[in-house]
Amino acid sequence: MSHLSCAHFRKGDLVEVLKQENGPSTSTYYAAKVLRSNVKQRNQIFVEYQTMIIIGSGCQKCVTELVDLASVRPMPPRELNKCFRMGDSVDVYCDNAWQKGTIKDILENSKYIVRFHGKSEGIVAEQCYLRLHREWDDGSWVPPLPEQNMSSSMDMQSRKVKLKTKCSKRKSEPMIGMGTSVEVKSDEEGYKGAWYGASVIDTIGNDEFLVQYLTLVTDDETAPLREVVKKDDIRPCPPPVSSVVRFELFEKVDVWFNEGWWEGEVLEVQYGFKYKVYFSSSNETLEFDHSVLRHHQEWNNGKWIKGKSTKLGANLTNQRTKFSTGTIVEVKSDEVGFQGAWFSAIIVKEMGNGKFMVQYHSLLTDDGTDFLIEEASAADIRPSPPHIGHAHPFKLLELVDAWCSDGWWVGCIIKVHKNLEYTVYFETAEELKFQHCDLRPHQEWIDGYWVAAAKASRGNQ
């Protein structure tokens, strides 16, 4: 069993609470938030569960509980969706919690059969509801996280020890010694701006290093490439950024391409976790999968700073809102009974005077022989919102878009049921039940930018 002998949690920390509801051989983890850690009992903390709801007296609220510290661990870092093998130990998200199981069979369409301990029958689970099982043991994940995450964790632990000196006002930069994992910037034509992983073999004076690359080889391809690089062209490996669920439109990213990391900016967010990325160094736009992107960070004065969107975003937004022919958009309906619903469409023709001819993707003509084409005002048109992966359950009072009657309708979650089902309340005072796959996080198109919606208040219901 995982244990936490010397962990310290603060108010607001996200954690998981282990419950062995069906005996010591079963492991079920519930997501929670720390409400108070300085309780009288030093070995207990007060938490609020994120998916356990109490219903009564006409209202709902999250369950709170005083739990033993030994059953609490940090929230595991989000990892990119990966393929699993037969026999892998995994956690499956079902019944509002993560349950430990084993991969027993691999099916088509990224689905797996998972079997739980003590049960002869398994369940079918989609890849997005699976994660590799890890135990939290004395401050470390077992099996360990990827090497980069581990080195970052070690760096974070070392920062807890502070040494006060009175030598100089100049900030000291991290030491780069033999064996240090680094990234090296290329200055070769056609590769400028790309960063390549390497290991420091030796130091040459104060300003140069001998490095051995992790992915680049010699011309005869017989050995890893080694070369001398200047201090200004070398940096520590950037730490992982948590909660990599999706990348935003116009966000600066690094893309793994041609054995290195290239700086770019998300030009278009597509369905299926794909993105079009623009590279200013080559003035190119290429399409990539989610798995080869990471958040861009700048190494500045010995600190990592998250990269921000550039002016390119504003310029491209202005171009995008022109809605040229072929642009995928969503059109708002004003018809009685359909007010406020958004329907996916494509721009067929610009009519002038703020009018466009659009063809819908889900609405048909009266005779049902073709997709409906009609004129729409620019005020009722917006770009297709960026796709947000949402493997975790939606929360109580969260604003969502619900797929109903061939369009997206804005509503608020008022009940969270088992098996990833929800009751959604709409402005029409109607309440309907939906599956997780029929909902998406609600976003607002404001001043040329997509803005994630805030949590609804009870007064808005």
Keywords:
single chain; 461 residues; mainly beta; disordered N terminus
Number of helical segments with 4 or more residues:
2
Quaternary state, please?
single chain
Helix content: under 10%
What Rg is obtained from the alpha carbons, in whole angstroms?
26 Å
Q: Tell me the overall shape.
A: globular
What share of the residues does DSSP label as strand, in percent? Answer: over 45%
The chain-level structural class is mainly beta
Distance between the termini: 44 Å
Largest sheet: 10 strands, antiparallel
Q: Which stretches are poorly predicted, pLDDT < 50 over at least 5 residues?
A: 1-6, 147-173, 310-320, 457-461
Query: Whole-number average pLDDT?
Result: 78
Strand count: 36
